[in-house]
Amino acid sequence: MTAKREVKVEPDDGGLVVRRRTELLSDGTYLFEDTLAIDGPLSATVITCEAWLVELYELKSGDLAFLSGNESIAASTHKLGVLYPPFTITQPRFTNVQGHLVGIAATGSLLEEFKSTPILFDLAIAKAPPSVVEILEILRRGINRRAVPLNPRPSLLALRTKRLIDETYRAHPVIARIAQRLGVTHEHLSRQFKCDFRLSPSAYLHKLRVADAPLRLARGEEIVNVSQEVGYNDLSRFYKHFRNVTDSSPGACKKILRPRH
Fold first, then answer.
1. Could you report the per-residue pLDDT of 29-51, keeping only the tens digit for each?
2. In a domain? residue 3
3. Domain check: are 128 and 189 in the same one?
């Protein structure tokens, strides 16, 4: 497997993902359409915060699979959907993918049965849904559903650590204090978390904060306000971690993601 990279949106000359359409629906849902042109293998890490994400793919060629524990779960059709619920970690792997993607990011409204585990499912047609109601109906009708979490059986310690970070990531949680609260050493907690989720608790914290930013930027919030909302009192630290995760700046991201007609 090649070195992992974060999936990012690049301009037309980037040759990776070209954003063709962006739109904010009346309920605040963010809808986008991309053209995909990925040569060779590309592994990504998808981390969600309180917003959930649905991606609907129509592939002309190539393959999409998900690492889940010791398994690689491959899409069985070129028309497929992926649900990334809030606060989940998923690792898709694209191989020579050419095609079209419709994405929907939203907060709230997700059915209880879909709130905990990322799923891969087959589609009859991959078209842009006009509302959250329709995307929820697509999820209900999805066939050949398969769970694709990065780790389907994490340890209780890693799970409790992740839950505490998820609940407090905007309030400057200290990993050493979380370890103390859970009755283990910082070193043991970090080692177990990395074993289960393939990144350290500190790295997860910063990726989670950055994951909270794009939808806010797409909705037009000012960068300084977004920085504070996702847990950074220091704007320069927000820029630093945003660049580390996305290879881009908050300003460039906002320009690409903002709705245009």
1. 888 999 999 998 999 999 999 99
2. no
3. no
81, 54 in Cβ contact below 8 A? Answer: yes
164: left (phi over 0), alpha (psi -120 to 50) or beta: alpha
Place of tokens 């990776």: 16
Q: How many domains does the chain have?
A: 2
Q: Is residue 111 part of a domain?
A: yes
Instruction: Using DSSP, state whether 244 is helix, strand or coil.
Output: helix
Using CA atoms, how far apart are residues 134 and 52, in angstroms rounded to an integer?
15
Angle between helices 175-182 and 186-197 (to 10 degrees): 100
Residues 19 and 143 in one domain: yes
Q: What is the pLDDT of residues 220-256, one digit of tens each?
A: 899 999 999 999 989 999 999 999 998 889 999 888 8
The two tokens of residue 28 are 């605040």
Range of the domain at 218: 156-197+199-257
